[in-house]
Amino acid sequence: xxFKTPVLGxxxxxxxGCSDSENLNVNTQIxxxxxxxITIEGLYSMASQPKIxxxxxxxxxxxxxxxxxxxEKTVEEKENAAIRFLTDHTIKNPxxxxxxxxxxxxxxxxxxxxxxxxxxQSLRQLLPVDFESGQFExxxxxxxxxxEDAPAFEYRGMHLDVSxxxxxxxxxxxxxxxxxxxxxxxxxxHLTDDQGWRLEIKKYPKLQQVASKRDKTLLGHYSDQPHQFxxxxxxGFYTQEEAKEVVAYAQSKFITVIPxxxxxxxxxxxxxxxxxLGCGNPEVNVATKWGVFETIYCTKEETFKFLADVMxxxxxxxxxxxxxxxxxxxxxxxxxxxxxxxxxxxxEALAGEEELQSYFVSRIESYLNKKGRQIIGWDEILEGGxxxxxxxxxxxxxxxxxxxxxxxHQVIMSPNSNCYFDYYQSExxxxxxAIGGFLPLQKVFEFNPIPEELKGNxxxxxxxxxxxxxxxxxxxxxxxxxMVFPRILAMSEALWSAKADRNYDKFLTKIEPxxxxxxxxxxxxxxxxxxIKDSIYFHENNTIIKLHxxxxxxxxxxxxxxxxxxxxxxxxIDSITVKGSKVINAIAFSGEETxxxxxxxxFNAHKAQGKPISLSVEPHxxxxxxxxxxxxxxxxxxxxxxxDKEWLGFFGxxxxxxxxxxxxxAVTELKTRCFNGNGQWIYLPKSIxxxxxxxxxxxxxxxxxxxTKAEDIxxxxxxxxxxxxxxxxxxxEIPVGSQGEGSRAWLFLDELTVN
Length: 755
Ligand code: ACM
Ligand code: ZN
Hints:
By secondary structure, the protein is α/β, with parallel strands linked by helices. The protein has 16 helices and 39 strands. Residues 328-329, 378, 395 line the site of acetamide (ACM).
């Protein structure tokens, strides 16, 4: 077959001119999207057990393909081989590659085994999906393509917390396999935390005997009160041999393992094993519940001796240039009342505890630098002064990363707004328990590690991004996979394909087929493609609801009388218009069968519903999914999750809301809800004040409490008004002894119902 006009596109339906006039559907869908992918009309027919030509320079990539495709290696027949690997020195980036399929077969070009390995991962997706489980087909038809590909970012990371829950070496290897398939190249292994120390350190046997085990584990969600426990000892650690095995395995897939040894905070497990490491030799247990703990390493000399010994063994096991030293969430209360720590502040002429943290991190950095290693720390390491050569991993937002990049430090962006895979991925109440937040697939896909604010070449300091998988609520490997897939597909697109021709709709068309691959690989995943999402509008006194699913070609049926939709229910066409209070139920159908979850939403009509609304301050970007209209669209947010699109979150601000009722109206009541969750830094406001046109105002003071849930606030009003001015006063500074002490409190606001 001859080359014809190249067509850029998603997939090519080739009308194959063979004798039986068979229509062959061949797809060229690849995740992550290659930088350029040109499909050309034509198919290459490859016999089973194809000959593959490669030399020693492509040992890993060639070897992987040989196994994957059940091929036969040849070192002589470059011309006759079905697949050939060729060195191309014109390709400069060692991770880049070219992949050409034409009538001569498959040609992979790269200047390194690494780039060729990624070519193989792309080729893998052009082959029948059955190959994933070793079911080899006799004759394979491959589409003619011309691919030129290279990553947008050099650091493409996945993190995994093995302290909160522990996973076997086999499971870790499965994680690494999936990362490699998606061209991710850094595995950040979070090995130590308050709830368990998971790496063997030979010089300190109590890290194995004591710090690796906890007596029991919190049941349910942290916010469920009172706390209940399972009363079972839980533990585990990796021997150094096992960790080395993981490192070697990852290396064979071009993945670097970056160990994290947390300091000075998140260290209660180590202090439980060796109390002298804490301020005043505290008697503590390995933590049995989640959160941030006051017990952290003391800054006395013995701690540095311990950490130097630990690091000596860590660098023996992990050849990575980077060692992650944590640095996040270290409360300073113990340091404030510790003689050793206060002496350290004096003798080192430090301004206070913030600088003491900086001193701590800088000492560890200097030790590791002398051994030829570099540190990465969470963005708190900026506080009190950044260690001279540190790389910053920005998790509380982009701001820390921005500050570090501007100061000329390397940055890995991992903001919780786009990268926290422990957050809920669906607003559906049936979603399995997660820590909180809301991170749907699209938000991961839209992650851009380079914020627009950066100027000149400041963006050169942003070396990439990473998704974090904190495992408080992932007691099984199945659950880890459920939280990671398919969001990891979106992350791989964000980090590899930023320069490619990609958009979310195109990405969605690739996911359903990719699920077949995950099925073959026995990987669990969340499927929200068939969940129904809505947008809500108002016109005159009507509510107009638009529904859609992310997957195409699915029909939606709905009811407005509270009944469960069936195949006989109304078919959704382009919108639903309702008047007054109604419950809408809807579900997607594939043929006669329902698929996905039931959508159910209650619309409560009230006097302010859908009326013009303005806010004195913008909600925080991470909690503004629904926009200001969410405050008067007639829909209440979840009782237990403040991350959905009905809740708006404000960080530290007082908020004034003005609602225009469009005509003078008698008002008798304002009802609203605020979220309370002090463990998550969320507090009820101090007060709410409502002012009418007449200048008359009504004030309600609100007493704090320690519940974690949405709290109803009802205020009687009386008068006639067109405008309602509602002032909500933030709680203020978080008290000493509470999570987030000294920080401003979050305020979360739901529907402002006016009767
Ligand atoms: C973090 O999530 N505490 C880094
Ligand atoms: Zn101390």
